[in-house]
Amino acid sequence: MGVTPSGGRTLSLDTLVRVKREQREAEASRRLVLPEEMTTPLGCDAVAVPADLGPLLMPRLPRVGCVYDDGTHWWWIVPSDSDYALEWPAPSHYAAGALVPDAPRTPRLIHHPGGTIPYTPPIPLYLTLCRLTGVTPAWSHTVSA
After folding, report:
1. What pLDDT was estimated at residue 102?
2. CA-CA distance, 98 to 39, in Å (whole number)?
3. 3-state DSSP call for residue 77?
4. pTM value?
């Protein structure tokens, strides 16, 4: 964000796109509510995985942040923009702003990390999810000339 000569603010195209995406998603979604003592210095997004994969992911991660269950998915809190240059493997779903689309029930917190930081580190989550789903991480694909 910058300042114009007249003192007004300018927004980058990336900021405008993100604001519009969050606005559109908010119409049909609800935001995951973090515990009151949690701080989000890096923003807040979420990654959903089918509920049957959740218990397989948990013990394989070096740190587990806040995790929510809506009955069909587990939602992992990650820093904002953790989808930058990553293609999260199917059947996962990336939710900017931790906005949850219509779910069978309101997601409930099933894991509360120690401390005040709600994040699961996104790279270990991504790599573990790739391994469990048999997907090659995007940066591992061969590039042809």
Report:
1. 76
2. 14
3. strand
4. 0.76
